[in-house]
Amino acid sequence: MTTSTVVKAESEQAPPRPARRRARDRLGPPWFFVVPALLVYAAIVLYPSVSGIVYAFTDWSGLGDWSFVGLKNFDTLFHDEQALGALKNTLLLTVAIVVVQNAIGLALALGVHTRIKSRILLRAVFFAPVVVSPVMVAFLWKYVYNPAPDAGLNGLLGAIGLDSLRQDWLGNPSLALWSVAFMVIWQHAGYSMVIFLAGLEGVPADLHEAATIDGAGRFSRFRYITWPLLAPATTINLMLSTIGGLKLFDQIFAATNGGPGYATETLSTVLYKQAFVFGRFGYSTAVALVLALFVAAVSLVQIRYLRAREDQT
Amino acid sequence: MNRYRPRTFALELLMVAVGVAFLFPVYALITLSLKNADQIASSPLGLPRPPTLHNYSEAWSAASLGGALLSSTLVTVLSLVLLIAIGSCAAYFLARTRSRLGYGMYVLFLLGIVLPFQLGMIPLYNLFSRLDLIGSYQSIIVFYSGIQLPFTIFLYTGFIRALPSEYASAALVDGASHWQAYTRIVFPLLRPITGTVLILNAVFIWNDFFTPLLYLAGSDHETVPVRIFAFVGQYVSDYGLVFAGLVLGAIPILVVFLVLQRYVIKGFASGLKG
C-alpha cells in the first residue's frame, strides 16, 4: 500500500527533485545491498524458469538439437489419457487434502484451545510429524498400509473387531489415491492446527463472555464470533494446503510411485517420469508449465476472494 | 469457560484418545524397529519381547547415516547462512527504496513464491552439470539460497517496513557507512524475524528430498532423506532394519523440535501471515 502511494508521489514531483527528498534518499540503503540476492535469484529461479517456459514449446530431448513445435506438447497433454488422468488425480487429491486437513486442523485447534491439562503435550504430538521428512513419513505409512491382514492398519482394525474394513490400501486402484491423501493429511493436520490456534488466541475472551451473558449457545458463539475472526488463519491455511496439494511429489514418489497402474499419478510424477524416464524434456516442461499456471491461478483467486471475505468481517 | 468441569474432563478424555490413535503409526514404527525378523512375523503389532537394539546398530552402518547426518548439517547450515545474508540485505534495500525499479524488483522476487521449482528443474540441472557441479555441496547450497529467497525476502521486507528507519539514519548522520549501519544497527533489530526465517527454512532444507536426490545421489555428499531413500530401497522387506533407519533419520530434527518447541510452533504459526 505505502509503496504505491510513494511511487505516485514521486511521479508527480519529479522533475525537479526537491532537495529534501534527495537528502533522505542518501539515508536509504544503496543498491549494492540487493545485488547478490538478485544474481543468485536470476541464476537459480529466473533463468531456469524462463528456459523452462521456452522448452515447453520445443521437442527437446535433453541432448543435441531441438526445434520449436508450437503448441504440440500441450495438444499431446490434453489428448493423453494418462496425463488427463494425472490432472484429475492432482485436483481430486488437492480438494481432499484442503477440505479434510483444514477441518481436522480446526477441530484439533478447538480441542486444544481449552482448559484441558494435556493441551501442551497434545499440541506437540499433533505438530511433530510436520517437521519430519515427507519421504520418511511415506515409508512409515507404506507399512501402515500393508495388505497383510495382521500388520499395520489392517492388524489394528482386526484387533478392535473391524475385520470387515481391512483393505489393500495402496494396492486397490480405487482406494490408493485416498490412502495417499490421508497420509498427507496425517502429516500436515498439525500445521493447520497451529495456524488456527494462533487465530484463536486472537479472539478476545470478553466477546465470548458477553455473548454467553446474552444467552448465545456454544454453536452460535462459534458461528458469529470465533469463525469470522478466524478469517485470516483460514486464508493462510487454504492457500498453504492448496499449493502444497498441487505440488505434492515426495510422498507419492516414495509410497506408490504413481501406481498401482496410473491410479496415483499426478502432474508432478508425470513430469518427473517424462523427463527422467522417457527423456521427453520438452513435453515434461510443458506439464510443469501447466502445473505452474494452476498454482499461480489458484493463489491469485484465493488471495482475492479471501481478502474480500476478511474485509467484510 | 474458566474452570475444569466434568465437561472439560470428557473433552480431555476424547482428545487424549484422538492423540493415541494419531500416534498409532509411531507405535508401529518404534515397536517394529525393536523386534527381530521372527517376532515381526509372529506378532507384527505386539510389544517386542525381548526388545533388541540389533536393528539400530546394523541400520546405522548399513545406511552410513553418520556421513549423511554430517552432509545434511553442512548443507543446512551453509545454505541458511548464505540465504539470510543475501536475503536480509536485499530486503533492507527493497523495504526502504522509493524507486519504481526497486518496487519492480520486489514484485519479481515475490513471483518466485508461486513458481513451482519443477518449471526450472531441468534447465537448472543442465546448468549445474555444464559447470561440473553436480554431486558437489556448492550446487545444492546455492540452489537452496536461490529457491528460498522469495519467501525469505517476503518475510524480511514486511518486518523491515514496520521498523522505524530513524535508528539507521541516526548512525548515518553520526558518520557510519551504510554497511556499518546495517550490520551493527539494523540486522540485530531483525532478530525476531531472523528466528522465524531460520526455523522455517531449516525444516524445509533438512527434509527436502527431490533436488538432493537429483544433485547428490550416488556421491559422498548424500543428505539424510536421500540416504534413507536408497537404504529403504535396498532392504525393503526387512521392516525391523528399515524402521530402525527411519527412527535414526528422524531423531535429530525431532529432538531439535522438542527442545525448541515453543519457537518452532510460533515460527510456523506466525511466519506466513500475508
From TrEMBL, chain A:
Keywords carried by this UniProt record: Cell membrane, Membrane, Transmembrane, Transmembrane helix, Transport
Gene3D superfamilies assigned: MetI-like
Matching Pfam families: BPD_transp_1
Chief location of this protein within or outside the cell: membrane
Keyword Transport in annotation: yes
Membrane topology: Multi-pass membrane protein
PROSITE patterns per the UniProt record, alphabetical: ABC_TM1
InterPro entries: ABC_transporter_permease, MetI-like, MetI-like_sf
Keyword Iron-sulfur among UniProt keywords: no
Domain ABC transmembrane type-1 residue range list: 87-302
Spans annotated as Disordered: 1-22
Membrane-spanning residues: 31-57, 91-112, 124-144, 175-200, 221-240, 281-301
Family as reported in the entry's similarity comment: Belongs to the binding-protein-dependent transport system permease family.
The protein's name: Carbohydrate ABC transporter permease
From TrEMBL, chain B:
Predominant cellular place of this UniProt entry's protein: membrane
Gene3D superfamilies: MetI-like
Stored InterPro entries: MetI-like, MetI-like_sf
UniProt keywords, alphabetically: Cell membrane, Membrane, Transmembrane, Transmembrane helix, Transport
Domain of life: Bacteria
Residues covered by the ABC transmembrane type-1 domain: 69-260
CDD domains the UniProt entry points to: TM_PBP2
Homology family: Belongs to the binding-protein-dependent transport system permease family.
Protein name in the entry: Carbohydrate ABC transporter permease
The species this protein was found in: Paractinoplanes globisporus
The organism's taxonomic lineage, starting at the top: Bacteria, Bacillati, Actinomycetota, Actinomycetes, Micromonosporales
